[in-house]
Design goal:
8 strands; globular; single chain; 2 helices; mainly beta; five-stranded antiparallel β-sheet; 14% helix
């Protein structure tokens, strides 16, 4: 009987020392030409929703200071993620595009992937979060 209690306490101790299952992702965004407007930062965890605005896993709209942005997303479970950022310089709540559909406001993606003709695929921008980490994205 006493041995069962000891084994139980030892197992309980092992469970409490497990590695964390959720992580913090710090996103640093540089390359803004000014501090006007807002930065839209979206995290995606699925190729099915990337890069549709409004279908992101998590997102924030933040002020730009000193032509850069830095923010944390906490409690991310282990997995693959992609990040999209754009500079809503004229504060109209969307990424403006020209007549052929190319953005006229600065944008960027994780892995600093630069698409040439169309939006990237999730696989182009995906990275694994299996520990807390920091990434930097340059908007252009």
């Amino acid at each position: 009987m006493q041995m069962n209690r000891i084994v139980g306490f030892l197992l309980l101790g092992l469970v409490s020392f497990q590695a964390p299952s959720n992580f913090t992702l710090t996103i640093n965004v540089t390359g803004f030409s000014n501090n006007t407007g807002k930065a839209y930062v979206a995290i995606y965890n699925s190729a099915k929703t990337f890069p549709a605005y409004g279908k992101q896993y998590k997102g924030r709209i933040v002020d730009i200071k000193n032509q850069k942005v830095s923010l944390n997303f906490d409690d991310l479970p282990k997995g693959s993620y992609g990040v999209a950022v754009f500079h809503d310089e004229n504060k109209n709540g969307k990424l403006d595009k020209n007549l052929v559909g190319y953005p006229t406001e600065a944008f960027g993606f994780s892995n600093n992937f630069r698409p040439t003709i169309s939006a990237p695929d999730f696989e182009d921008v995906a990275f694994v979060v299996d520990k807390s980490k920091s990434i930097t994205i340059q908007v252009k």
